[in-house]
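Example record

Each entry pairs one chain with its bound ligand, adenosine-5'-triphosphate.
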Amino acid sequence: MAIMARVLVVDDEPKLGRFVAEMLELDGHEVARAGSGREALGLLAARAFDVVVTDLRMPEVDGLEVLRAARALPTPPEVVLMTAHGTAESAVAAMKAGAADYVLKPFAMDELRLRVGRLATSRTAEARSAALLDRLTPDLVAESPAMKAVLAAARQVAPTDATVLLTGESGTGKSQLARFLHYQGRRAGGPLVEVHCAALPETLLEGELFGHEKGAFTGAVARKQGHLAAADRGTLFLDEIGEVTPATQVKLLRFLQERTFVPLGATEARSVDVRVISATNRDLAAAVKAGAFREDFLYRLNVFEIAVPPLRARREDVLPLAARFLSSRGIPAERLSAPARDRLLAHAWPGNVRELENALERATILAGQGEIRPEHLPGNAAIPTGRGPELLGEGFSLDHHERALIHAALERAGGNKTLAARLLGVTRRRLYSLLASHDSRDPDDRDD
Ligand SMILES: Nc1ncnc2c1ncn2[C@@H]1O[C@H](COP(=O)(O)OP(=O)(O)OP(=O)(O)O)[C@@H](O)[C@H]1O
Ligand SMILES: [Mg+2]
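Structure tokens for the complex follow.
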């Protein structure tokens, strides 16, 4: 199947111009005609073309000028020059000036059709793959200075093969940023393999990463290719790298140093061409000090570190993120009432962008078709300062409020205790002990 292109045919001989245009139209192209170089310049300025087929010799504005004007456009079309016998040298000069092709007049029409068709195909294929990569690249909201700096750093490092470590709290956008780095880099056409290092126990993780031979361990009934091999010529994203055990750290360190690895049960090392991006919400420098993380491994991982700031450190992103989320659900941003916006801005978002998205998801359900109001949003888990006095009253019990707060936090965190603890501003250990102490008491028990 021929691919359709938008073609401009420029010839000061009307008969030939019409003939060429009709033929190209028969091939399915969308063709416009200009009877002079000047007319062509006007059309080029007004409309987008994929291919320009122009006569070289024309009075006033000649084919070379049309070529120059075309090449100067933001998205320059491909230019094919038609030239009479005996002017082949100027055609060669035109090629040097950026023409894609030329045909000698009188030419076989088939030859011209073939060339235009070929240009149209490669051009659309190119545009398609560029458009596809653009679609796959996450479109990250970055209105705050802090997030703009993150994106600028990401843009700088994306086209290199440098090993990148993404640090930041849970839900700040590290995984999205890893995808951004891959699809904006030169490995975009290759695989992106994401591995969640925390999800598996050590031996399984190693099998997944390095692959194994048949019979390498009980249950290894067949040979298995690992993630490292699968990521060849692409990017390996090691998520939650802080959870990797010391034994696996050693193996990954070797891989980072030499880009070779030995599948479990194999005798020979394999080598692959892989770029490594990793992410963690842990303070790895502290883990190194505590002896839980190898310093040499960290040193290899953070060749280039991007620290993604928490949402509370970039308030300018909150409303644009909310608007983006709502519009992705087909909800106009105006449905968010002004007091609701204030509530969003006042909240600390300990769960970061993910918490914001969850809160909005819930709010859109609660609000139905109406506008989103503050009561649809979280923020009730914490008692706003100043409300203390009205809460004091008959039947007041600190215990009761504590219980209610913990309950609200757990509910809002979807049962995630780490997040709930953060919402309450306490450590996880403290949350556990609070839960234990409340469990051991009846809700209506009063301490006296
Ligand atoms: N700048 C941003 N613009 C738009 N959406 C974002 C942005 N940052 C994060 N998100 C969205 O927020 C959610 C959480 O992001 P992501 O999963 O990348 O966070 P994370 O830092 O990898 O979290 P975790 O540490 O829990 O893995 C995703 O739905 C993501 O699309
Ligand atoms: Mg993630």
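The first helix runs from residue 14 to 26.
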